């Protein structure tokens, strides 16, 4: 049986305001949200879906659907990062940065041998413009491959490392990328609670394996705010 994509939201009766969202057990591909005739505080309205949506959710024009606790649309993965897949996304960044850094270090001896054999200008051109050096016949295929793989690994490690630092900051602040861009801190419950909210109670161990049993405390539809726990400045 297909696993439900809990990041996706579809409203059953978009014309009504409502108080409680419920999962439709008949549909495994979407969460269907049942609507009740009561007003929900903090609900926002999605003009594309023409319906009220839970707080922190956001519409993705690429996925053409609202996403629970939407963080951003990842173009490399081709899908949105939201409430349910934020933890695997963070682990992917960590593991990818680690693997790429490791490969870069392993390539170090071969690269240093190349450095010793050629002038610095030649090496700089090889690392910066490997395709041009290959096409003009200035390097062998093996030297090109070494430079290309090194470039890819170093650039990938830097990209993943920067992403990990950025999302680590958001994680500790309890923000999504969208909330960070808007300067919103409504859901910052303190670093420890924020970590548990995004990674579950076993937040230390899930970095090793993101699919470890560590259930997220919320349902992606309602969230505790700093005001709820008295953390806002009076
Ligand atoms: Zn929408
Ligand atoms: Zn998307």
From TrEMBL:
<dbReference type="GO" id="GO:0006612">
    <property type="term" value="P:protein targeting to membrane"/>
</dbReference>
<dbReference type="Pfam" id="PF01529">
    <property type="entry name" value="DHHC"/>
</dbReference>
<feature type="transmembrane region" description="Helical">
    <location>
        <begin position="144"/>
        <end position="166"/>
    </location>
</feature>
<feature type="transmembrane region" description="Helical">
    <location>
        <begin position="117"/>
        <end position="137"/>
    </location>
</feature>
<dbReference type="InterPro" id="IPR039859">
    <property type="entry name" value="PFA4/ZDH16/20/ERF2-like"/>
</dbReference>
<protein>
    <recommendedName>
        <fullName>Palmitoyltransferase</fullName>
        <ecNumber>2.3.1.225</ecNumber>
    </recommendedName>
</protein>
<feature type="transmembrane region" description="Helical">
    <location>
        <begin position="89"/>
        <end position="111"/>
    </location>
</feature>
<keyword id="KW-0472">Membrane</keyword>
<keyword id="KW-1133">Transmembrane helix</keyword>
<dbReference type="InterPro" id="IPR001594">
    <property type="entry name" value="Palmitoyltrfase_DHHC"/>
</dbReference>
<comment type="similarity">
    <text>Belongs to the DHHC palmitoyltransferase family.</text>
</comment>
<dbReference type="GO" id="GO:0016020">
    <property type="term" value="C:membrane"/>
</dbReference>
<dbReference type="GO" id="GO:0005783">
    <property type="term" value="C:endoplasmic reticulum"/>
</dbReference>
<dbReference type="GO" id="GO:0005794">
    <property type="term" value="C:Golgi apparatus"/>
</dbReference>
<keyword id="KW-0012">Acyltransferase</keyword>
<feature type="domain" description="Palmitoyltransferase DHHC">
    <location>
        <begin position="44"/>
        <end position="182"/>
    </location>
</feature>
<keyword id="KW-0808">Transferase</keyword>
<keyword id="KW-0812">Transmembrane</keyword>
<dbReference type="GO" id="GO:0019706">
    <property type="term" value="F:protein-cysteine S-palmitoyltransferase activity"/>
</dbReference>
């Amino acid at each position: 049986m297909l696993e439900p994509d809990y990041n996706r939201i579809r409203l059953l009766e978009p014309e009504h305001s409502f108080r409680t969202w419920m999962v439709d057990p008949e549909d495994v591909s979407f969460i269907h949200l049942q609507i009740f005739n009561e007003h929900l505080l903090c609900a926002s309205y999605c003009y594309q879906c023409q319906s009220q949506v839970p707080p922190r959710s956001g519409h993705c024009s690429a996925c053409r659907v609202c996403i629970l606790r939407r963080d951003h649309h990842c173009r490399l993965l081709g899908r949105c990062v939201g409430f349910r897949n934020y933890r695997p996304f963070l682990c992917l960044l960590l593991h990818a940065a680690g693997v790429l850094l490791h490969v870069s270090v392993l390539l170090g001896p071969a690269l240093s041998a190349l450095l010793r054999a050629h002038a610095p200008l030649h090496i700089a051109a090889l690392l910066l413009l490997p395709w041009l050096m290959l096409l003009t016949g200035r390097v062998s295929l093996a030297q090109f491959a070494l430079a290309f793989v090194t470039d890819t690994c170093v650039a990938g490690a830097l990209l993943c490392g920067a992403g990990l630092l950025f999302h680590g900051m958001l994680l500790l602040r309890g923000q999504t990328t969208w909330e960070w861009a808007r300067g919103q801190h409504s859901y910052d419950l303190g670093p420890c609670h924020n970590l548990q909210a995004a990674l579950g109670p076993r937040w230390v161990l899930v970095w090793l394996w993101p699919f470890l049993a560590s259930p997220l405390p919320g349902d992606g539809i309602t969230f505790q705010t700093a005001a709820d726990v008295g953390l806002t400045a009076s």
